[in-house]
Task: structure prediction
Amino acid sequence: MRFTLEIEPLDLDLTLGCGQVFRWSRTGRGDWIGPIGRHLVTLGWENGRLSVSAQPGETRMPARVSEFLRASDDIMEIQSTLSGDSVLSSGLERFRGLRIVKMDEWECLASYVLATYANIPRIAKMIDEVSMRFGHEIVDGVRSFPSPSDLREASVGELQKCGLGYRAKYLHSISRCIDRAEIRRLKLLEYRDLRRELMTLPGVGEKVADCVSLFGFGKLDAFPIDVWIERAISRLFNLEGSYKTIRGFATQRWGDFAGYAQEYLYFNERALAKSSGCEFSRCAQDQG
Result:
């Protein structure tokens, strides 16, 4: 199934290569390929429009891809609002095509539980192993991420064979806590209530709850904090402290678009670590 979409602005390299998702990869042609549900999707460009190829595809595929890439987000409005921050304003244009993705809520939850204390290649390997062992075949060699019911009968030992280590017991437990009805209930909650409930689940701490709120449930006021964000906040705003302190600062400073501010800061800090230059610079007169 092939079709095109008009999503502007959109930079696939920024969006799919900045650590939000773990099963997408860049092809030699510059396209990106990865699964959405039980479909293998290839994204590229054709005459200025987003070109989409989906195997096997379905009538709802254009809507599913649009939702995944959050096509309805008004990036210009978001950046216009965030440009009022003197620290962010100088570098926002560089990130104009970076969009926050909207993953399936269950897949996002399970993936970020597996992501604790692991680098991106390790995370991707664990997710692929779980998918290959328990998911449904999409095309030869590619399987969907398993649903909670797919995993419910698996033992901790069987999950450990996927190389999950201590995370196996968490995945084992949450697959028994979550079903589609519970996901529907959680989707109705505001961010703060959602965050609190997610943190009652096995293996879900503050960072995982914020990642799942942002990338799975689409709560743009969520602000996940990892070592890169801690460095950015310290370097740019002279602020250090607990997770609660930094999250409170972000909520007050960036409000409804804290999630986008987080992605910009994260990508900028990672880029800074690889080079001598940076887009965002500390503004001495504005420490917020």
